[in-house]
Amino acid sequence: MALVKVDNLSRVFDVSKPWLNRVLERREKEYLTAVSEVSFDVAERSTYALVGESGSGKSTIGKMLVGLLSPSDGHVEIEGIDLANEPDAAKVDAVRADIQMIFQDPYASLNPRWRVKDIIVEPVASRGGKTEGMAEKLLEQVGLSVKDAGKFPHEFSGGQRQRICIARALASEPRLIVCDEPTSALDVSVQAQVLNLMSDLKENFGLTYVFISHDLTVVRHMADVIGVLYLGRLVEEAVPGRLFDDPKHPYTQMLLEAAPKMDAFGREIQPPEGEIPDPINPPPGCAFHPRCPLAQDICKRDRPRLRQIGGTRVACHFAE
Amino acid sequence: MAEPVLSIRDLSVEIPTRHGIVKPVDGVSYDIRAGEILGVVGESGAGKSMAGNAVIGLLSPPAHIASGEIWLNGKRIDQLRGEAMRRLRGKEIGMVFQDPLTSLNPLLRIGDQLVETMRTHLKISEKEAEKRAVAALEEVGIPGAASRVNSYPHEFSGGMRQRVVIALALCAEPSLVIADEPTTALDVSVQAQIIALLKRLCRERGTAVMLITHDMGVIAEATDRVAVMYAGRLAELGAVEQVLTRPQHPYTHGLMASTPLASEGKARLHQIPGAMPRLDAVPDGCAFNPRCPRATEVCRTPPPPRVKDGMAACWHPLVEDVEEKVS
Questions:
Q1: Which has the closest alpha carbon to A200: B19, B1, B317, B268?
Q2: Which residues in chain B touch residue A265, judged by CB atoms under 8 angstroms apart?
Q3: Angle made by CA atoms A63, A229, B190, in degrees to the nearest 5
Q4: B254 shares contact with chain A (CB less than 8 Å)
Q5: Cβ separation of A272 and B263 shorter than 8 Å?
Q6: Per UniProt, which keywords does this protein have (chain B) (predicted)?
Q7: Partner-chain residue, chosen from A261, A268, A276, that has the shortest CB–CB distance to B217
Q8: Does A189 sit within 8 Å of B271, measured CB to CB?
Q9: How would residue B2 be classed by pLDDT, with cut points 50, 70 and 90?
Q10: Is B227 a residue whose pLDDT tops 80?
C-alpha cells in the first residue's frame, strides 16, 4: 500500500519586487515555479529517492511532504489524509506524529544551547509523552554512547551530529522520514557509516524514507524507486537497475553520462551543453528542449505527460 | 625526464596552539610535471588544502612552513615573502578556489578584473589586455564573450563564474595552477563541463595542475597521478589507475570501498571504523593504525612509514598479499 500519495503537486513562489518598485519600474509580478505537476506514490517500507540538480525542486517537494510548505496546487496524502485540507485537526495531528525529517546540515539543525538528550526527546516531550531513558536508548541505537546524552552538540563531529539528528527523528517512532541530503555535508567514509545506519534502522523499525539527494551514486545505493526531477518536473521514474542500465529520458541519460565514474581514467567526454534554465521564465513545452539532442517542434509546443514504458515512467515525446 | 614544474620536498606546516604544536601537513613530498594533473585527495582535515596554500604562500598565521622545501621551475619559493611572493602569485601560479562568487570582486566588471591581472603581471598595453580578455573568455567557453566582458560577476551563473575564475587564473600564463575543490559547489552536468575545460586548457598550454578534491570520481576522471592524504601525511602516491584500482594502503582501500559507486548493489557499504584523528592527537607511528585491520606492533611505534617510489606509506601494504598468492 502507498504510504504517501503525491498527486499533481505544484508550488509557486511569488518573487516579485515590492509594490512601489513594480509601479515605478513598470514591472509585472513575477512567479517562480519550483514544483510543477509532480505525481508519485511511495510504498510503505520502501525508499523513494528524489534526485536532481540544484533548482530542480527536490527540497521544496520534501518540505511540502512534511508540511513545512503548503502546496499551491495538488495534494499530498499521507496515510490517506491530506494534511493541507483535512478539516479534522485530531486526524492531522495523528499523522503528523508519524512524519519526521532529517536535514542536510547537522551544524545548523541542532540547537547549540540544548543538551543532546533534550534535543533527542523533544519530538516526544513537546507532545507531553514520557521520555525517561529514551535518549540513552536511542543514542545506543544510532551507534553513540550513553555518556553522550549530557553533552552539547559542539562536542561532536559532523557524522556524530547527523547520528543525533537521526536519533531525534526516531524518537517519536515515525513511519515516514524525509531525508533532505542527509550525507552531503559528510566525508565519504563517514557517509558510508551513516548510510549503513540508515539502512539498518529501516529494516529494524519498518521505516519508509523519502530520500532527497543530488548524488546519483548514493541514490543508486539507497533507493528502491528513483524519481528524476528537472526544473520542478518529474521527468523519469524507475527502479535503480532500470534507471541506470536503460535511462529513457534524454536528461537522465545526460546526467548519467556526466557523472564521474571510477573506472573512467582519462575519459574524454563531450560535456553536456548549457545549464538549467531560469525557473521564472521556463521554456515552453518540455523544459529540457533547449538542451536536448532529440528536440523537435513538438517539444517546444507541448509539455510531455508521464508515460509508462516497460517499468519506467518517463515524460518525453520521443522516449521509447 | 623533464624537470618538474613544482617539487615539494618533505614539507611540514605547523600551527602553534595553547596545547602544543599541531602539524596539519607533515613530511609531504611530491612533484608535478608540465601538462600533468596531480590529484590531491583526502577527507576534511587531511591537510590537502593546507599543502596547496603553503605552495602559494597563503598560510594564515600562526600557521607556517616549519621545514621542507618548495621548488617552482628550479627556484626555491618557500622562503619568499611579501612583494616577491605577490609577484609569483597570479604570474607563475594561478589559483582556482571552491566558491567562484567569493573569488571575484563583485564591484568590478569581469573584463576589468582580467585586464588588471594581466597588466599587473605582463608588460602589455591596455588595448592589448582588453583584446586578450575577450579571447580568454572565449577560450573558457563563455558565449558572447565580447559583450560579456562588461558584465558583473552577479550576472553570471555558478558554472559561468567558475569559467571566469579559470580564465583569470590562466590569463597571465602561469606554469602551475592550484585548483582547490573547483567543482564542489557545482551541479554534476556543470562539473563535467568545468573538468573537461581544465583538462583541455592544461594540455594545450602544458600547465601543471594541482587538483585538490575529496571526490574520488573527479580524481578518476581528471587526474594523471594522485596523492592520498591522511592526517596531514601522504598515505599513497602513484598513477591514478594504479592507486584507485589496486590501492596498496589500507586507508585508500577502505576509502575506495566505502564510496557507493564501488558498492555495486551490495546491501551495506564498506565501513572504516572510527574517524580521522584530531590533529592534536595523531597516534604514534602510522596515523592510521587504530583504524587499520592490518596494524601490528611496528605500526604503533615511531617513526611513521613514508611514501617511497610507488610504494604506499605502510608497513604492510596490500600488494604483498597479491604477490604471496601468485608465488
A1: B268
A2: 220-221, 240-241, 244
A3: 110
A4: yes
A5: no
A6: ATP-binding, Cell membrane, Membrane, Nucleotide-binding, Transport
A7: A261
A8: yes
A9: low
A10: yes
What DSSP designation does A72 have?
A: S
- Domains contained in chain B, CATH given: 6-92+174-326 (3.40.50.300), 93-173 (no CATH)
Asked whether residue B326 carries a pLDDT value surpassing 50, the answer given is no
Q: Can you give the residue range of the structural domain that contains A78?
A: 2-98+174-259+273-314
Which of A217, A216, A107, A86 shows the shortest CA–CA distance to A152?
A107
Does pLDDT of B324 surpass 50?
no
Exposure letters B133-163 (e unless 16+ CB within 10 A, then b): bbebbebbbbeebeebbebebeebebbbbbb
Q: With cut-offs at 50, 70 and 90, classify the pLDDT of residue B305.
A: confident
- Integer Cα distance of A2 and A305 in angstroms: 22
Question: pLDDT of A25-73, one tens digit each?
Answer: 888 888 889 999 999 999 999 999 999 888 888 999 999 999 899 999 9
Residue closest to B228 by CA, chosen among B307, B290, B322, B298 = B307
B44 inside 8 A of chain A by CB: yes
pLDDT of residue B185: 79
Rounded to an integer, the average pLDDT of A221-237 is 93
Between B307 and A215, residue with greater pLDDT: A215
Cell numbers placing B116? 588588471
pLDDT bin (cut points 50, 70, 90) of residue A226 is: very high
Residues of A in contact with B291 (CB under 8 A): none
CA A170 to chain centre: 18
Q: Is the CB of residue B269 less than 8 Å away from at least one CB of chain A? A: yes
- A122 domain-assigned: no
In a domain, A44, yes or no: yes
CB-based contacts of B89, cutoff 8 Å, min separation 6: B56, B57, B95
CA angle, residues A36, A38, A44, in degrees to nearest 5: 155
Q: Is residue A14 part of a domain?
A: yes
Helix (H, G, I), strand (E, B) or coil at A287: coil
CA-wise closest residue to B29 among B71, B58, B92: B71
Higher pLDDT, B323 or B210: B210
Task: Report pLDDT for A163.
Answer: 92
**Å between A244 CA and nearest CA of chain B:** 11
> What size, in residues, is chain A?
320
Q: Residues B249-286, buried b or exposed e (16+ Cβ, 10 A)? A: bbbbbbbbbbbbbbbeeeeebbbbeebbbebeebbebb
What per-residue confidence (pLDDT) applies to B325?
42
> Which residues face B71 on adjacent strands?
B7, B76
Q: What is the pLDDT of residue A211?
A: 95
Report how many domains make up chain A: 1
Per-residue DSSP letter, A230: E
Interface of A with B (CB under 8 A): 53-54, 157, 159, 187-193, 195-196, 199, 214-218, 220-222, 254-255, 257-269, 271-272, 275-276
Residue A185 lies in a domain: yes
List the CATH number of the domain containing A7: 3.40.50.300
Please, are residues A179 and B152 in contact by the beta-carbon 8 Å criterion? no
d(CA A26, CA B319): 71
Mean pLDDT of A288-293: 89
B144 CB within 8 Å of a chain A CB: no
Are B191 and A275 inside 8 Å of each other by CB? Answer: no
